[in-house]
Task: structure prediction
Amino acid sequence: MIFSKQGLEVTYKWLSKELEVHVNVAKQILSEFWQKYKEKKQFECVFLLMGHLHDNGMRVEIVKEKDLSTAKEKYSKIIAKHVYSLQKTLPETQLLGLAEDGDVKFSGIKCIENNERNDEEMHMFRWGAVSREIESAPQEKVQSSVSEAASERKATSPEEKQVAKKKNADRKGFDNLFGKAGNKQKNSSNADKVEVDSSNHNKKGTSKNGSAEKKKSTQKGGLSNFLELGKNQTKTSANSLNKGKSTNSLDKDKCANSSVAEKGANFLTKEATEEKVLKTDLKQIQNMKDFEEKISKTDKQKQKARSRKRNRSKETNNAVKKRKRIAIQSDSSNSEPSDNENESELDLPLSPESCPAFLKKRSVSPPQVKHENGKRKVLKIVDKTFEEDGFLVTKKVHVYESCSEEEPEITEPKNEKKIVSESHSEVKGKKNTKQTTLINFFKKS
Amino acid sequence: MFEARLVQSAILKKVLDAIKDLLTEATFECSDSGIQVQAMDNAHVSLVSLNLRSDGFDKYRCDRNLSMGMSIAMSKILRCAGSEDTVTLRAVDNPENITFIFESPNKEKLAEYEMKLINMDQEHLGIPETSYSCVVKMPSQEFSRICRDLSQFGESITFACSKEGIKFSATGDYGQATVKLAQTADADNEEEAVVVNMQEPVKLTFSCRYLNCFIKAGPLCAQVQLSMSNDVPLVCEYKIGDIGHIRYYLAPKIDDDEEN
Result:
């Protein structure tokens, strides 16, 4: 096993990344493994608990197995409990946070077709299972566009691991088709923003607890992305989707700034084999195709959106990428996925999506921002590829894009400002130093 | 009878120049051992301690201990003395006046100035003997320059002293200014040397206003000695030739937050 070999902790995030399966599947795998081996006491298991506290607060916490029962007492209602990680020894649960980067790719939706699930998950992650109660309403709204996906999703109960796996394969196929390029690269950058995001979300989470109403409203806010999606499925929604997704996983990997580089090495070898398995699996391919068909059936709109997306995705993906550059990327994790992507793209017809991948490393100075209709729009130099006389012509175009994904970026400068202002106040504080008098020091004689 | 004669009036002139900006009046304690002045500025932030030993004078006689309150307007009198003149201070035992007598080197000119003494409240502070964490000796000119330069940037200068040397910094609206002085490697030229004698690092902030008064004593001595301990007044000492010294004490500035 992995941990016996490397003494690593195996978190569901890591597992999902390694096996390229959905996080939920990874959790399932972990818990099954745990059930099987817990008698042997070889491993230490860490659980993630999410629930309502007795004082109406909400809490997400990571507890060791031995602390589980005491931790549970804190909650009036536990919304979610799953295996967070398995490892041989874990002196400090906080180490888990340092241990690795979560992989956004498998946590959420890559493409529109998946959004039903994402939606649900997002809420799960943001609000915990409480959202489940409220979920039904929003779901209906979204369902019109994604009813099929929804039904499929429902069919896949976590126990049916096999099915789930297949499904994940499907998803994977689509990831390759659509968002993968963007998503993968986004992962690392987003991960860096995790702290900001997660803190935000935590705050939200706790503040929300008091009133269900509030929760609902915010949820709607989150959903609006998807509603929009249903209607337009424009790049904006794609962005928001991405964002939603990233925040999902971000929420989870609270402080995932990590040793991706380290992992990259492991990843290389592992993935090679993994890839093989996946590829040779005819079933999966079959599934993939099935899935595609289904989607093409779902509605023309989607097709339109896709084609539109194809045109514009370069911009959006670029936008995404540009943002990315702000964050520190680990090369290993980056190059790895892109290899992947290329491979898979060879298999699949929709290769133009790979274009954005080449356009990514660009830009630099913070984008110009303007506000329009209350939406932030960012001026970006975007490489647009036009088809002219049968040639693909790439031009640099200034485009104002509204990006909900901006948020993390906004928060960063804000933070900086804060720091600046703090230091400023410090300076001022220095200025405000009080002059003491000698009488304080020398006594009259 | 009190009589003290200095061949070089220039020294006394410089001493008065060194204190006239801080003080308006001061009590001169004359005793057999010499003349001592201790006076605080009106804000009680700084203190001047002047010590002129009797053996530094060319002629010194003090039959009774005298406490003479003098207005620092005496600097005006001293301005009347030529730089080469010999100066003699003279007072009777229960004086109401003090007389300054300036003699030109060739004895051809004799000028007498009489100044009224003033009654002053005795406000003598006991200054405890302290061993300071950091004692820095540096060229007084350098110190003057730094204080002048940095006072353009902020109201106060932070002295940070470590083993490597001493760092002066000031922060203001325009920006920040920092001057670092490293300890001189070879102390061949004593007057130019920067010597840091440090027990533990200190960091203190002082008002520029007072420092700029202190540096008026620069002409008295090529070297200035800064003694610092955390949260204790700075001592800025200039030697006055062989006669004595002038010490400035300056209360540090403390963060308002701490105070409140």
